[in-house]
Structure formats: structure tokens, C-alpha cells
Task: structure prediction
Amino acid sequence: METIVHLFKGNIGPGLFAMGDAFKNGGLLVAPLLTVVIAVVSIHCQHVLVTCSKKMRDLRGEAVCADYALTVERCFENGPSKLRSWSRTMGRLVDIFICVTQLGFCCIYFVFISTNLKQVSVSRRGEVYLDSIWNYLFSKILQAYDIGMDVHLVMLLAFVPVLLSSLITNLKWLTPVSMFANVCMILGLAITLYYALKDGLPEIGERALWTNGSQLALFFGTAIFAFEGIALVMPLKNAMRKPRQFESTLGVLNVGMFLVSVMFMFAGSVGYMKWGEQVGGSLTLNLGDTILAQAVKLMVSAGVLLGYPLQFFVAIQIMWPSVKQMCGIQGRSLAGELSFRTCMVLLTLAIAELVPALGLFISLIGALCSTALALVFPPVIELIARSEPNKGPGVWICVKNLVILVLALLGFFTGSYESLKQIVKHFG
Result:
């Protein structure tokens, strides 16, 4: 139960509520088909990682499977002789991608929270609402000093609760936090979909069934961002009392990711059908100004805020040992770790302040970093791990993995280019 809670929290975040924007960029016919393809390939690549990690564990006679980076390193180390010298470099490269991806998620969480809370605190006319909980706390201060509640200011206000939640250093202590966050996100999604469906949906003919190549590149970035939870796979498997139940046919990975995929499909299709070209980078931004709508934004923001420490935990777990070694810190050094965590939260806040365009930020992180982790490294290590002396991995394995790699690299370059171009255009 604990594992599936963390698996849900690792995948259900801003990406879930961004699927309406993804479907806008993909089209009502093409987006669902591509979402299924991306889901199937992403889950398959997660199984590939687990299989390769188990094989490396058995080769070394160890009791526990290695994490993502160490699995990649060992696959190269035990692969063809020409690749063995690259083992350390590839392991470090995976660690860099994981850290950049996880901290990128944390930046997006800041933008997501602040964008939603800004709508809670300010009406469309710029007048302060006195009905909502947020405004009850801050409205008098804002009025007294004539402060405008822009996204940048709300990020600063969100910093303190985000920092406090990020100082939790034990993954087990995050279980109740993740459980509450899941409840907030799922309940928030249910009410959002209720808003979308209560007055009916427009005719299908009013929505685009497909789009052009540049928009599809943005769709790819957002969709792969939503499905990128591969960095959590090995830690979650190793934390289980019965690790074999993780990757079995009806195990945690398949069941959990199937449910996540259904939620993504439903949220994306309903969101785009309802709001069309006006759909926001988060579905909650289309809910309007009623008290219930404001409560949903608060609820979802709370869910995202409580999801921040889980994403943050993965990056810190990788970075802190190296930082300790560089600084010559001996022993546990709780004060040093808490100081480092504070600095990294400040870094994610600073980056979020610089790029507060939610939809474009999600697409960029997805195309740039999530693609490499979710779709590039797993096929590469399978090709290496399945190779034998004087014999390749087999025709089927080669063809399958080459197709995944070609599609991944295509999405990587086109998605990154289009996201950067749109970000420059947005701030230009």
C-alpha cells in the first residue's frame, strides 16, 4: 500500500492537470492515440530498467537491486569491452539527468502552486475576494499596502510551507504526506471534471482532431513529463517487503500505471473538449471564481505542495553524498543536510521566478530531461545487457529498441526546440 501511494504521488502532479493543454496541442483524435503509445512505451521501459537491474544484481551476487544510475553504470561495466570505459561517465550522466529532472519538477510545482493561488486571491477584475480562506488571511495586508498579487509574490509566500515540507529527511515519514497529497489531487480532479461535465460538452466538430508538427512537439513534451516517474521505480521496489510483487503482471507497477494512464486520458480529453483553445496550463485555471472553484485550487495546490518533498527527496539523495565529500563533512551532519536542502529549495524558487509560464515550462522539462530518462537510457542498457560474447541481443530486441530510440530522440529535439522557441516568444 505504501509503495503504490508513493507511485501515485510520483506520477500524479501538475502533469495530470496539464493534460488538457497537451490535448489542445495534439488534437482530439491524435492526442489519445499518442497518449496510449507513450504510456505503453514508458511502462515497458520501466520494466526494462527493473529487468536489467535484477540481472546486474544476480551477476554480482547482491541481495538488493541497484538504483537507476548504478544499473546503467553496471550494464556498461559488464557489456562489450569497447563500452566498459564509459561506465562511470554514463552512471554520472544518469544522475545529472535525474537531478535536473527532479529539480525541474520542483520548479514547476512552485509555478503551479503560485498560478493557482494567484487566481484564488485575485478576481478577474483585480479585486480581492473576501470569501476565500487565502484572502481572509492576506486581504487586509494587500489592501493596506496596495500590493498586487502577481505570480512572483505568491511564489515567495509559498516558499515557507514548501521549505518546511522539504526538510523531511526520511522517505517513510513522507508516506502520510503522500497519502494526503493523493487525496487532495484525486478529489481536486474529481471536482474539476464535475465542473467540466455538469453543463455538457460542446460538439466534437468544434475541436481540432489533429494539429501541426510544432504543436505535436509541445504535446510530446507535456505528455512525457506526465509519465516520467522512472527515477522512483527502483527505490520503491527496494523499499517493498516483497519486491517481486512490484513488477509482476498484476503488480504495483502495472496496476498503478494503468490507473494513472486512465486518469491522464480522461482529464486530457474532457479538459480540451470543455474549454478548447482556452484550456489553461492547469485545468484548475479554467474553473472560474466560485467559492467551490477557489477551494479546489487551494486543495490541488496543497496536494502539489505536499508532493514537492517526494520529488525533491530523489535529487537530494543523489546530490548530498557528493556535496558532503566535497565539503569534507564527516558523519550524519543533520545541520549540514538541512542547510543544503534549504539552498536547493531557494534555487528551485529562483528558477521558477525566472520562467513562470506553466505550460511551456512543463513541455520543456518533459522534452529535455524526461525523454532521456524515460525513453533513451532503458533501451540502450537493454541492448547492452542482452548482448553476449560474439553475439548481439537478437533482431527483435534491436528493432524494438531502435524504434523507441528514434521516436525518443525525435521528441527530444523537436520538443526542446519548440518549447524554447515559445518561451522566448512568450517573454519577448
About this structure: The longest helix spans residues 291-327. Residues 82 and 391 are 15 Å apart (CA to CA). The two ends are 48 Å apart (CA to CA). The chain has 17 helices and no strands.
